[in-house]
Fold this protein.
Amino acid sequence: MTNLSVNIAGITFKNPVTTASGTFGYGEEFRDFFDPGKLGGIFVKAVTGSNREGNAYPRMAETASGMLNSVGLQNKGVDHFVREIYPRIKDFDTHIIVNVSGSTIEEYVRVAEQINELQNIPAIELNISCPNVKQGGMAFGTIPEMSEEVTRAVRNVYKKVLMVKLSPNVTSITEIAKAVTDGGADVLTLINTLLGMAIDAERQRPILSTITGGLSGPAIKPIALRMVWQVHKAVKIPVIGLGGIMNATDAIEFLLAGASAIQVGTANFIDPMASVNIVEGLKAYLQKNHIADVNDLIGALKTD
Amino acid sequence: MEIKKTVQDLTVARNISLNNRHFLLDLIAPEPLPLMLPGQFVQVLVNDSPTTFLRRPFSIHQVDYPRKSIRLLVQIKGDGTRHLSSLREGEALNVLYPLGNSFSLPSVKNVLLIGGGCGVAPLLFLAQFLNQNRIRPTILVGFRTKEEVSEIEAYSAFGDVFITTDDGTEGEHGLVPDHSILQKERLPFEKIYCCGPDAMMKAVARLAALHKIDCEVSLENTMACGFGVCLCCVTPTDRGNERVCVEGPVFNIKRLDWI
C-alpha cells in the first residue's frame, strides 16, 4: 500500500494535494467534475470583514505561460460566509481552510475570531499580501515587522492551526518567514502571486484596470520552487508550496524542495480536473519508484 | 434548471472557412450531448500553441443533437484562434461545456435579433430555438464588408434577415443600430436580443430603452476559467459585480448600468 497522507501541524490530510484560494471558489463549483473529497484539502476564496465588490473590469491579462489578475478580494464578507456558505460546504469529505484577508489588523482579527467558531474549519490561511491601509497601502507581507505583528494579533484570537501565506514580492523571503514564525504561525504557505504588469501597445494603455496585478501560472514556478526550498531550510514549521503547479511532476518538485503539501491554483482555471489528476499522478509516481510513503519525498532533494 | 458541465475530447468533423477571418468548426461528442440553450458557450483548450495559456470561449452557434455535433463560429484574433483555424477533420479538441446562462424564451411574438461581427454567433442557435417555440424573429446582422457576409441562408430559414456592412458593399451602408428598420418613430418589436461589440450593444440598449422594448444582451468579457471561480469576467449589475460566465453572458439591460 502506498501512503499518500501527510500530517501538517496535527491535521491529517488524506493526500498532499489541495487547491489554492481564489482558484477553486468554495469547492461547490467543481462538483460537476469530481468529488472534492478526493483532495487533501480546499483553501476557499478569501474572506474579508465585510462585502467587497473588488476591482473594476478588466481584471485579467493572459501572459506567456501565465496570467495576471487583479480581482481585488471580491467576496460577500465573513458574516455571509458563516451564514450562507459554511453550512453548504462544512460536510465535504476534505479539510476546508479559509483564506482570511483584511485591510487593517483589526479586520484580520475580527474575521479570524468568527472563523475560529466554525467547528469544521481546522485552519485558516492568513493572506498577508493585502495592503495595510493604515500604513500607506504597503502590503503587510512585505515588511518583517508588519508581517509579525498581524500574525501575532491573529494568533492571540485564533486557537486552531494558523497558516500564513507569504508574498514573494520581497527581497528576502526567509526574513519574512522567520518573522511570521516568531509571530506564532504554525504553517507557511508560499508563494502568492508576483506583482506584474501587462500593456496593450496598440492602445498604449495598461490591460488591467488597476495597471498592475498578480502573476500566476508556470511562469512563476522556478521562483516558487526557490522560495519554498529557501524557507524549508530556514524555518522548522511545515511549508505548503504553490506557484505554477500544472501536473503531478510539478507537485513532486515542490515536495522535493521541502513542501509538506501543495496547492493547485491557476491550473484549475484551465483544467477543472487538474487537482484530482495530480493526486492520481502522484500515486503513480510513488508506485513506479517503489516509494511506500509520500512523506519520504518531502525535502528529499539531493544536492550532493 | 441546472445543466451539468463536462470536460470532453470532441472530434473535429469539419472546419469550414467562411472568409479570411472567420471559420466554422463542427465538433462531435463521444456521447449524447448535454442539453444546451442559446446564449451558452464553450471553453476550448488550444493545444500546440505555446502563447495560448488559457482556454478560449466561444458561443454555441448551432447544435445537432442526433449527430452529437456542436458548431462554433470563430473569428481569427490571435495565435489561439489561428491555430484552431488550421485544425483538420479527425483531430481532438478538449472542450469544457455547456457554460453560462441563456437567452430567455420570450412571452411575446415580435422579436428582433441583432448581431454584429462575430457577435452573430449565438443568434443562429437562438433563431432556431425561437422557431421551435413558434416565433419567427426579425434578424439584423452587421458585417465589415461583403466578403464577410455569410450564412444568410441559414438565418433566413428562421426569420426575415436584414444586413448592414460598414462599407456599404452589401445591405445597408453603416452600423447595425443605424439600419432603417430601427429608425421609425414606433418600432414593431416587443423584445430585442443583441450580441456584438460593446459599443454596438450599448447603442442598441439605448434604442431599446428609448422605445421601451425589453432587451437582452450577451457580453464577451475576457475570462480565465469560464465556470465561476476566477472572478475575472465580472460586470457591474444591480446586484453588484456579477460573473459574465455564470450569471451571464446574457443580461437584461435593465440590470446593467448602461443607460
Notes: Chain B touches chain A at residues 4-7, 45, 51-55, 96, 221-225, 227-235, 240-241 (CB under 8 Å). The CA atoms of residues 28 and 253 of chain B lie 35 Å apart. Chain B has four helices and 15 strands. Chain B has two domains: 6-99, 111-218.
